[in-house]
Amino acid sequence: MAKSHTRLLSREVDMKKKKLLLAVVVIICAGLFSYYQNNKLDLSTYTITSQKIAGAGLKVVQLSDLHSKEFGENQYRLVNKVKAVEPDIITFTGDLIDQKKYDENAVLSLMNQLVAIAPTYYVTGNHEYWSGRFQQLEQELKAANIKILHNQKEELHLNGTRLIIAGVDDPAVSGEEAEVTVASELDKALQGVTKQDFILLLSHRPELFSVYEKLDIDLVLSGHAHGGQVRIPFVGGLAAPDQGFFPKYTAGIYEKDGTTMIVNRGLGNSIIPQRVFNTPEIVEININ
Known about the structure:
single chain; alpha/beta; Purple Acid Phosphatase, chain A, domain 2; 2 domains; 7 helices; about 35% helix; elongated
């Protein structure tokens, strides 16, 4: 009787140990999965062809939505990935900082190194304005020779290729209706552009695709959606700012009536600290 009771107690202890071990394994695996999803850097490559492009074409790197995140000391992992692409220009489509976190070292270390690789163009996101620190950031970016496109365009000549690169401020700065604000600012910024010009637009918000398409813009680079934060296999992103649940524009390439938009999944996080099946992204675009 005593031996039977002892064996029963021993089995219970063994079962508790196994459950504890299983719980520890699950916690470790969840931690590794979380780290991988938030820190593995993916490179996505797209090729855009147009009869408007002459010469050897351009290789563009697009980054977006850093939210002050770091990828190694002095951003070495991110910088090395960009450097390996050997881009002709680098673009950053907003939310370099987060409204609650302005990590000067993370941000300026990255931007100073990027501009040493290739000319770097930048447009604002909503978090720059929400942070209340944009004036300081703007001065620091200008000192680093970052080209900030405030509702303006620039004629670019590289590799025998000519194109118009334009940028529009995030409508958060105006506090007015986003669609009306962006359409109005772009209409003014693109004055003098002809149908023969290839227009590359940097704009933070992908949900305004109908605005870009109506203005006959050739290629739009955007971010803001964070890839939908949680990506459901064969379905897409779960939720995105200003688009709600099951958003239309979260990641990848979209085309309509001659306008192509590429939406970058972004690098960092903001309100929701975890990505799921949605690793940080660097985008490479070959314009031929």
